Every structure is written in structure tokens, then in C-alpha cells.
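Appendix B. Raw example, untouched.
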Amino acid sequence: MTANKIGLIAGEGKMPVYIAQKAKAKGFEVYVAGAKGNAKEEDYKNCARVFQAFRLGQLGAGIRFFKEHGVTRVLMAGRVQHTSIFSNLMPDLRGAKFLASLKNMQTKNILSRVIEEFKKDGLEFTNSALFLEDYMPKAGVLSARKPTEEEKKVIAFGYKTSKAMAALDIGLTCVVSQNAVIAVEGMEGTDRCILRAGELYRESAEKKSAVAVVKVARPNQDARYDLPVIGKGTLESLHQAGIGVLAFEAEKTLVLDLEEVIKLADKYNICLTAV
């Protein structure tokens, strides 16, 4: 095994870029297979040895890319827009056979099967947070504002609800109030889910009550893919939606730009808590 090389299957967002930067700082050569329409080559110009874009479904080409560069360890990170399956899906022969063999198109099933397919060619997947361990807070309130007693009850309900939704592979985030679900994350992603919830709440609420955004990991989360992630954009979305609580699962959620996220929470008087 070539210890100083790491492969990165990159989607959109800061997480894969941070991983590439941290890996390079630790002496790794980073080889990036970017999801076309999601990962941007310019983001990796100072941290990747090689960047190559692939359309979704180009499984054989992706595997060959890593093998040709002597990579034996791979990780995946970053969100791939679900709508990419309608615009960027162009499988090669191996990808077409792989897609035809799938029993369903749920994220968990697809990614676990991708890992199996890579393993056939001697490519092992590793923890997505391999270089970002410091970005996963332990349980506790991170913001200056603490949750009220009402908000604690809403968070507990939201946690239970989010876990149920995550187990069904629907999404990792829900927005709740008074034991009612306002919105559940779907294809639109966390930020748009939050904004949609804000609109729904403003239109339907007869009186103001505690509202919380709760994000969790899947039950028995496989750390090799699709970890829950929040960042500054999440806080901006909460502020825009008029929601004052963000709770996330402790030690299983990546908080990118942690210090800046906490500063934003305090600026907007948002309760930020790991549960």
C-alpha cells in the first residue's frame, strides 16, 4: 500500500476541499475524482496533485483513475445534488451494469454498493472524517444562548423524528415545533429545507412557539460516506428563516468552520447545541 497517497471522490461544498488541504498538510498526495457539476477544479488547485471530473455513473473510469495513480485508499466527501441524476448521469459500461444491478436507488444502498465495487479492484474506503476529527463536537451547548425548557422538548421530539427519517434514508434533517413536523429534508438539501420550513411556519402559525432544526446521523451510520455536515450557510439559512435553534448529533456531525459557526450563532442569537 502506498501510504502517502489518498484518493478523494469529491462532491460540492467545503468539506472535500478541507479534507484535501488537511491531507496535503500531513504529507499526502491527493488525487481528486470530482463529481461533474458539483466539485470545482479551481478549489483544488493548491491541494490536489491531480483533479479529474467524472459524470455520475462513470464507475469504471473512476476506478481506473485511482489505480493508474497508484492510489489504494479512497474516501468520499461532499454533497452531490440529487438532481444531478437527471442532468449528469452518463454511465460507462461498468457503471451501467452496476446501476442495473441495484435493487433500489436509496443513497445508503448505492454508496455501500459503490464501496463493494471499488474493493473488487483493491481500493479500500476509509472514514470520510479522517482528516477532520476536530470538527465533530461532543455533546453540549456551543452558543452563548442556552435552550429554554420548551426548546429542549422540541429538540427531543425533533431528534426522535430525524432518526426515524434517517433510518428510512429520506433525509438527515427535520424542522419541528410543538410536537409537529414542519419540514423534512428531501432532494433540496438542508438549507432549502430550513428556508421552506420558515415560510411554512410564518404562513400557518397562529402564535409564536419554539421551532428547532435538528440534524442527525443515520442509525448505524457508516463513517465512510454521507456524514451529516453543517456550516456557516446553515446558520445563515436559520437566520433568514427566523428559526432560533439548531441541534445536531454529537460526535457524528461535522461542523465546518466551527469557530465562525459559533460566532454566527451568537450574532443571530441562535441556540447551537450538540445532543
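End of appendix B.
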